[in-house]
Amino acid sequence: MPSSLQETTDLSTTSVIEPPPEAVRRYVDAERLHMARELHDIVAYSFATISLQAGVAAHVADDRPEQAAEALRNIQEISGEAARELRALLGVMRSTQRSETPLHGLARLDTLAATTTGAGLPTRVVVSGPARSLPPAVDRAAYRIAQEALTNALRHAGAESAVVTVRYEPERLVLEVLDNGHGPQRSHGQPQPGSGHGINGMRERALALGGQLDAGPHSAGGFRVRVSIPIGVQA
Predict the structure, then answer these.
(1) Cβ distance 187 to 193 under 8 Å?
(2) What is the pLDDT of residues 118-152, one digit of tens each?
(3) Is residue 2 part of a domain?
(4) Enclosing domain of residue 145
(5) Per the domain annotation, does 16 fall within a domain?
(6) N or C, which end of the chain has less CB nearby within 10 Å?
(7) Residue 46 reports pLDDT greater than 90
(8) Rounded distance, CA 50 to CA 120, Å?
């Protein structure tokens, strides 16, 4: 057999495994981080609200059974919504195509506020400026940041109320969550375990879209999370 034909045969039957290009590796890492954030936000918020509602039910079961029943109905609704979100997230993870449709966006902010109110933190939503369509990534990030900020208020802040303000500016979306609590408690100068992870995750979401996030005590009292994201930036 001629050597040239032998070389061709060898090439056709040999599989060469090369490491993935750097761009592919970065994409995979970004997708993994995105899914981890989504999972964290779904589970953290659901568990925090369910825990509070369960505490209410246990506390009033004997003296106020109707309030206990209401808390149990809230648990059923919250857990059902969490299950729907997790199924949707798993569907995205199994798909070979990246979905640009947010699992949740600011259109569901009133529902989020109602759930938080039912969990014991009266929450009000204020919208400033003409609402308009947002890039899916911005819509999704703004909702998740509001959700995480309210989760922190429920779990750590000792707050009695919260206000979520959404301001549509010509080139930016500004979202602020202000509660009247004390924010994450600290021990020997360090946040409680888990109290900083949510804030870091919110900041990473904002930075990934060219925005910025500030979180800390408000000058007028309470704890404030404020995020500003360019509206024209795509994920």
Answers:
(1) no
(2) 888 899 999 999 888 899 889 989 999 999 899 88
(3) no
(4) 22-230
(5) no
(6) N
(7) no
(8) 11
Asked if residue 10 is part of any domain, the answer here is no
pTM: 0.66
Is residue 7 included in any domain, yes or no?
Answer: no
Least Cα distance to 141 among 197, 207, 205, 201 occurs for 205
Considering only CA atoms, which of 49, 180, 175 is closest in space to residue 119? Answer: 49
Gap between the Cα atoms of 131 and 179, Å rounded: 24
Taking the CA of residue 97 as centre, how many other CA atoms within 13 Å lie in the half-sphere pointing to its CB?
3
Give the number of domains in the chain. 1
CATH number at residue 215: 3.30.565.10
Distance CA(16)–CA(89), nearest Å, equals: 34
User: Which of 178, 225, 165, 180 is CA-nearest to residue 200?
Assistant: 225
Confidence of residue 225 (pLDDT cuts 50, 70, 90): very high
